[in-house]
Amino acid sequence: MKNALDFFKVLADETRLKIIMMLSKQDMCVCEIMEELAMSQPAVSHHLRILKKSKVVLDDKDGRWVFYSLNKKIFTQQLAAITSGLFAQIADNLENRQTQRNYGACLRIENEMEPFNNKKVN
């Protein structure tokens, strides 16, 4: 579940999602990403650093330029793991969901709180 959570954290930022969408279409250099997003170089580099650290994005130096691409293998593996793991488990849980309510914990807490609830305030 930690891997899924880490992947969701990477995807949870609008700018990173936009970069992922752009890189899913073609390789791009920082300048192109900056122009497309109307952002500064440090801001774009920050998001690319996070994407690279998660291995979702790869970089390739071409002369004095660095081009970024979506790591198709890692991205699809992460999506498949979430779909077949976490989401499949949730879907299974929903199919086999218990409909009977259990009041055990509620009654225990209520009993523990009773001395405080009956206390008179002067």
Secondary structure: elements and pairs:
Layout: H1 2-11, H2 14-25, E1 28-29, H3 30-37, H4 41-53, E2 57-62, E3 65-70, H5 72-95, H6 104-117
Antiparallel strand pairs: 1-3, 2-3
Short description, anyone?
The chain is mainly alpha-helical and 122 residues long.
CA-to-CA gap between the ends?
Answer: 51 Å
Largest beta-sheet details: 3 strands, antiparallel
Give the low-pLDDT segments.
none
Any idea what the shape is?
Answer: elongated
CATH architecture of the domain at 2-74: Orthogonal Bundle
CATH class of the domain at 2-74: Mainly Alpha
What helical percentage do the residues reach?
55-70%
β-strand amount:
5-15%
| CATH structural fold name of the domain at 2-74 | Arc Repressor Mutant, subunit A
Q: Give the overall average pLDDT.
A: 88
Order of helices and strands: HHEHHEEHH
Provide keyphrases for this structure.
single chain, 122 residues, mainly alpha, Arc Repressor Mutant, subunit A, 3-stranded antiparallel sheet, 6 helices
What does the model show?
- The protein is mainly α.
- The chain has helices spanning 2-11, 14-25, 30-37, 41-53, 72-95, 104-117, and strands at 28-29, 57-62, 65-70.
- The protein is 66% helix and 11% strand.
